[in-house]
Amino acid sequence: MRIVFYLLVTGISAAVTFGLAIVIWKLSTKYRLYPKIRARDVHTRPTPRLGGVAMFLGMVVAVAVASQLGNFSIVFTEPGKVLGLGAAALIIVLIGVADDIWDLDWLTKLAGQIIAAGILAWQGVQVSTLPIGGQAIVSPYVSLIITVFAIVLVMNAINFIDGLDGLVAGVALIANGVFFVYTYLLQAQAQTEYFNLASLTTAVLIGACIGFLPLNFHPAKLFMGDAGALLTGLLMAASAILVTGQVTSEFATGPDQFTAALVPGFIPILLPFAVLVVPLLDFGLAVTRRLRAGKSPFTADRKHLHHRLLDMGHSHLHAVLIFYGWTLVVSIGCLAYMFVPATIATLGIAAGLIILTVITLAPLSKRKALESVAQSTGTDDTDAAAGVARYDGLDAASVEEDDLIRPKEART
User: Fold this and answer.
1) Of all residues in the chain, what percent are helix, strand and coil, respectively (each to 5)?
2) CA distance 206 to 179
């Protein structure tokens, strides 16, 4: 019956977020509280970007309700961590809202992220040990640097993939759902306290994503903006750090048979990266691409993974579902190591990745077929030529950007 209390706070977070999201959408539409469309944007009509505020308030209400439930009382015996998480979240939301309205420079945003991560570390939410053998990080300065770096990395990784309707909310919902199952089963097998800050944070974030997704799914009426994307990344990083320290403190020094029965020692490190595999991959590629071009790693462009999927020929919905699929296969595959032999889990991941690769690259195969038809029939085959253009990424990108830049009456 313990799971009922988590379902309760998740439901409250979802309901409040959904209600506030509708209010924010209506007010933003009425008073035109939305920015102009940028050349790199995928959407073609101005859309409000303040959905992150609804998510934040929904989670705040859910945590407030949890504080009044006796089962969660142990979570609030360390008020410093709870208040630190709340303060960091508030700073991130304020920075995100300011950026969504006034378009802050990257240095200001980065400074705000570092301050928020520093507050979390200062209040005890930090990487102090490794879950492999309970190895402690000797220097507190090293612990602080690692913690701040990890939190800022995850926040920006999540923010970087926020380019398609429902993408971040859906990926976060899948990733946090798998992560919650992991944390809950971890407590069940260890026979320790079910109610902890890591699981509570994950539960309210799941609720916020559920409540926000109906207004954010394609075609989106409301975006979460930087406030929502950075907040999602902050909470995912915090819950991962909290549960990693929990695994070490509770289990790493325990009997060897417990560790063997539960999960290999590397899973607490591997799983957070697994659920973030898509955002981290996109972040790494973007930073490498921009640094090689001599630009700031935070310079905006139209070369993210979701842009590339669209340019390959995938529809908006198909591109989002492909991201969902990659996240689902890798995160559930990693979790499977807890229940099945490593060989079976590895084969399952491999099979899933192969299927997703075929689906991802399918438009390229269709494009090759169209090109062959066009070459064999000559240039007079307008249908084949049109089909090739449909799957030409560069043409698609240039056409979309041109459509966004030119006034509507000038389009043909």
Assistant:
1) 75, 0, 25
2) 10
Q: What is the pTM of this model?
A: 0.81
User: Is the bond preceding 48 in cis, omega lying within 30 degrees of 0?
Assistant: no
Please tell me the number of Cα atoms within 13 Å of 164 on its side-chain side: 22
Tell me which residues of the chain have a pLDDT lower than 70: 1, 35-44, 129-138, 188-193, 245-273, 275, 301-302, 365-412
pLDDT at res. 262: 43
Query: Total structural domains in the chain?
Result: 1
Q: What is the model's pLDDT at position 409?
A: 37
* Residues 6 or more apart in contact with residue 7 via CB below 8 angstroms: none
Is 404 part of any domain?
Answer: no
Report yes or no on 292 lying in a domain.
no
What integer pLDDT is reported at residue 136 of this predicted model? 58
Would residue 83 count as lying in a domain? yes
Domain residue limits at 230: 2-266
Spatial separation of the C-alpha atoms in residues 26 and 249, rounded to whole Å: 47
Contact assessment for residue 271 and residue 179, using Cβ atoms and an 8 Å cutoff: yes
- Per-residue pLDDT, 358: 92
Residue 308: inside a domain, yes or no? no
Other residues' Cβ atoms within 10 Å of the Cβ of residue 71: 15
Name the residue among 107, 50, 39, 116 with its Cα closest to residue 84: 116
| Residue 219 preceded by cis peptide, ω within 30 | yes
